[in-house]
Amino acid sequence: MSRAGRIARRGFLIGSVAVAGGVAFGAWRYTRPLPDPFAGTDAGALNPYVLIDADGVTLVAPRADKGQGARWLQAALIAEELDIDPATARIIPGPVSAAYYNRALIADFMPFAPTDTGWLAETARGAADIPARLLSWQMTGGSSSTADGFDKLREAGAVARETLKQAAATRHGLSRADLNTADGAVILPDGTRIPYADLAVEAARLEPVTDIVLRDRSQWRWLGQPMQRADVVAKSTGTQVYGIDLVLPEMLHATVRMAPWGGTVARLDPVAAEGMPGVLRVLPITGGVAVLARDTWSAMRAAAALDVAFTTPDTAGDQDAIWAALEATHDAGAIDTRRRDDGDVDAAIAPGDFAAEYRVPFLAHAPLEPMNATVLVTDDACTIWAGTQVPDFAVARAAALTGLPQTAIRLENQMIGGSFGRRLEIDFIAQAVEIAMAVPGRPVKLTWSREEDFAHDQPRPAQIARVRGRVTADGVQALDLTVASPSVIASWFGRVSSAPPGGDVSITTGAWDQPFAIPHFRVTGLRAPETVPVSSWRSVGASSNGFFFGTALDEMFATAGIDPMEGLLRLCDHAPSRAVLEAVRDLSGWTGRAGGQGRGRGVAFCLSFGVPCAQVVEVEDTPQGIRLTQAFAVADVGIVLDPVNAEAQLSGGMLFGLGHAMNCELTYRGHAPDQTNFHAYEGMRMHQTPAVQVRLLENGPLRGLGEPGVPPAAAALGNAIFAATGQRLRQMPFSRAVRFA
Amino acid sequence: MELIVNGQRRSLEADPQMPLLWALRDLLGLTGTKYGCGIAQCGACTVHVDGMAVRACQIRLADVTGEVTTIEGLGTPDAPHPVQTAWIGEQVAQCGYCQSGQIMQAAALLSLNGDPTDEDIDRAMSGNLCRCATYPRIRAAIRAAALRMGGV
To answer: Which of A247, A416, A698, B80 is most deeply packed, by most CB within 10 A?
Structure first.
């Protein structure tokens, strides 16, 4: 049983979350106290992030870890001020509570470019804590965990540290100012060491000390230094327990076979499947069928053999119709958002100037851990063990399904084997709740087959962009980019909560907000009809706009005979972004597109989630096909808090972008994709991986790095292939047009 | 039926058609071996049978005649195999879900070839999918493990 479960049955409650949380942001303008996530649980909570009891220190890391290292970084942020080696603390995801809302994510919903630090933009971002608290999102996403946690987690550690010092000062009749802390203990002036655990009961009687000053980074002991992530040993020895590995007493296994998107079960004959070995029950659920069995394999075998027929909806569910709907959206031209409209593009662009159309396909998230959730439903409670980025939404859905109050729903977030946005969805959790309701008192683990995962992913949308522009020997004079896409935000919100009104700026994110001084510059988003459900895929709108924008600029530079690195630098009017371009130029030893001996180089840039990232890719045109030889990436995250992991995120993000650009797409037929497993959706493999060099800069604001490595990759690769072969690629995946070695 | 897994004789009641993967995970509680695709396209379920790397999703219990070694049997957090030590040292894992299979595949490679070239590594490892794309560190860890195992 988890740590949170054990805490619930012991101890004492210290301090109030409202006070401890209040100081975390300095001045609250909103006075309703936040709920105490450990209220009624007798937890030894110094604040919602630090729990101390006789066994030691527990740090609460509420942002979900999908492999990006969030759990460890959150713990390190708290531990740095608490003066405890984070490797010696327990780290738990904590309960679902509004106390853990995500301020940074909401701030990025504000309609200001991430480079806009003007008064209005800063004020609006600062005010974002109010709607965030009202929505009480405990969401993980938008590369926001670092920015969200940087101050409040360190402040939580500092409040806990000073309160423990006050407890020791009171006990010994000393002044708190004369005490020190180190390695999980308060140090008295005579050198006596009092472990934090010995002070917990006395600290419980104190008001938390809130007059704290955060340490300067020159004093940091762990942050900014090479650290070993706490999960690395477990993940190298097969001992990391993911949600899919959970084993509970009396647990049953289940899988599902769902109707194609929008369809229903037309006919079901359960008799043959129920007679198969190991199968306990065939169970209709919303939108499909579940099979309950004694083991996963028996469930999957029976689900595959199930005698079932599905209906499909009478809407565009075939790929040709989907492309036609996107073209029709362009032709209709109804504007959804237009966040950039500088100068006068219509006057500046003449007939015969640059014009091109680009296409990106649907892409699956396909994290390697298939979707799974374990649920136990009893008469008066529901417990969910699942990896999720949106625990609030999962709890709300479980309450709606079971008819139980939300307070009766407990969710224990699990270590996640990859997500790339997939675990922003709660479909698999809702299914597991429905199944568990049929066998009250027995925990049920639902495990999807990989085929189910491909069939019922909510992919990154297919999109079409049309670009017009004017370029002279002096550089790009005008750019008019229009993107047609279904709305990820409306589609996703509609599933997990309710769709918000207004335009979807994510359609043009990664284009309208780019730091380029183009005299005539317009970016328009058009909302296409939703043909299949779509969702956030690592870097969301920037995943495709980075390709559209980076390729179109490269084409215009080539037309005018401008070196693309020089062309980008000439356009860029944002100092941290310029520094990133200059650094990738130097890191790659850039001397131009041509590499000699069949080699070509491409460069691309994208500012996403506030992180400027520039990449150079080198390819060689060989008799076996295009071979990726080298790849370079530079990004600016403000402060590199966890250097070993930051390098991994940037390298991994770039390679993720390259692999999908090379050979991945979902094509739909009857609302189901043709691609059913990894044989048809390869992504990056070892033998195709280029040599990678990355570098991180610290000139801009503090930001997270889970996503920003992705957006420039496809354009950098396509531009490199153009440099090597003269062939311009305007549609992903590139394997449609070229062969890769 | 009986299996020898990680040096121990284990008896289990199971359909002989059941893939070794699911017997390990659901019947023997050895969850370090992962399900990723079920069709030998991802390598997450890689185990050793008599020292050879095999995809546990593709071998039926009835066909398992040799000794099975899983990631749990290769080494432990307190006593890791040299390949695991290298994986820890290079901090290869991101989500980590594929890494049991990657490590088992790499250990099998190094047991046959103590000094693999880049091409040898490509050939041996390309069937093991890492969605986080940790490949550069996997390559570095294999090189580090080769040095370590060679006693250099």
So the answer is: A416
